[in-house]
Design goal:
The complex is a heterodimer of chains A (about 200) and B (about 280). By secondary structure, chain A is an alpha/beta fold. Chain A has an eight-stranded mixed sheet, sandwiched between helices. Chain A has a four-stranded mixed sheet with strand order 6-5-7-11, with helices on one face. A two-stranded antiparallel sheet of chain A has the order 8-10. The radius of gyration of chain A is 15 Å and the shape is globular. Chain B has one domain: TIM Barrel (Alpha-Beta Barrel). Chain B has an eight-stranded parallel barrel, surrounded by seven helices. In chain B, helix 1 packs parallel to helix 2, helix 7 runs parallel beside helix 8 and helix 9 packs across helix 11. Chain B is globular. Chain B starts with 7 loop residues before the first strand and ends in a 7-residue tail after the last helix. The chains are: A alpha/beta (about 200), B alpha/beta (about 280).
Chain lengths: ~200, ~280
Amino acid sequence: MIRIIDYGMGNLRSVQKALERLGYASEITSDPDSVANADRIVLPGVGAFGDAMVKLSSLNLIEPIKNHVLRGRPFLGICLGLQLLFDESEENGIHQGLSLLRGRVISFQPNLGIKVPHMGWNALRVVRPCPLFAEVPSGAFVYFVHSFYAVPGRREIVAAEADYPTPFAAAIHSENVFATQFHPEKSQEVGLRILRNFVERC
Amino acid sequence: MFSVLTKRIIPCLDVDRGRVVKGIHFLNLRDAGDPVEVARRYEADGADELVFLDITASHEDREIMLDIVRRVSEQVFMPFTVGGGIRTVEDAARLIQAGAEKVSINTAAVKNPSLITDIARRFGSCATVVNIDPRRVRKVSSALSAKGAEDEKEAAPDQEVVWEVFINGGRTPTGLEAVAWAKRVQELGAGEIVLTSMDADGTKNGYDLEMIEAVARAVSIPVVASGGAGHPQHLVDAFRVGADAALAASIFHYNEFSIPVTKRYLAEHGVPVRL
């Protein structure tokens, strides 16, 4: 069973409905036992990094998420769900993350002449082979809405980039861990293809 | 290959008790269909986002909007914003949990600015949109202020035109100046501003470019141009003065210029769009 983790951080229903459109049943849950025995986990989320960690902790979800990943089961993080994988974020002070991946989460700087949040459709540049992007051409447009982005310790885990205006990690792939800074569930046909790939190829 | 954030084209759907309507100067509403069907058509056409503005008067009927948000999110896999009648964080939470990517507030933001901060704290700035509806008014200079606005013509030489923020669907002046209010909502945590000119809205004569430029320069969050679009050139103009997205209703609703035609026009005029 695919389980979508509900920790009170925003719109989970869109992910579930997108999977449903693809013919896959999923369950929205905040129960640690359900998370512990999931085949696949999706960790979505919008909102602040620090609040998210507090909520995951108070719901006793951190251990089952870490165990799922360490046992090699497929994991998909979306937006904040990507950022939480790393060591720490500088959003509203320094907050510790799940530390499943080395690296930190930093803010876009509006002084580069860009608007923050980075909001809208930007083109993906797939930088190395990744099953998440099977049949997704480089240059495909996906929907982003975020002010922070991850800077991984190991560049090799960056599967796709976008530019704003300098390159940043748009997607991460490290063994069984997949994550997108964009929202596949809001990226029309391209996004549905990526979600299908997560279920069928990852 | 270098990627660029594309400019967003956003059809706005005014929804009254479950049906899409479009106001001309916010009056004379015309019915233009079922929100879910309209949303699906716009998704197929390549719209970049959708905005649903709930203009339902009575509080009881607002449950209908929640149901529409649920139905849209089951069938349409693109981002959409819902505004209208949001007065509390709980109102916002219900809409986001039903499937909205963002919520927008307008009158409630003016009356209770901390609502902006509260929504941003819970769902992030990215999900927090503030709609600002300015109208051009003559600012009576201090020497003439005692005479008030009744003596407009007589006082004209000494008056400076400013953009005053209106609320309650453009009916109620607030005394707030639009550029200053835009800066303030950014400080309070808004992640986007939808700037609707009450003067241009419904005219199809183009956006208020001067106002868009002034606001877009004053803030570092995205600004959505709104009010007055009648031709794809108007969108080109709005992007040239700094808009990050352009919202329009009637030109899309009545197929005067479809989304694909509009986007091709924008691309031919050097605007980065998602084709």
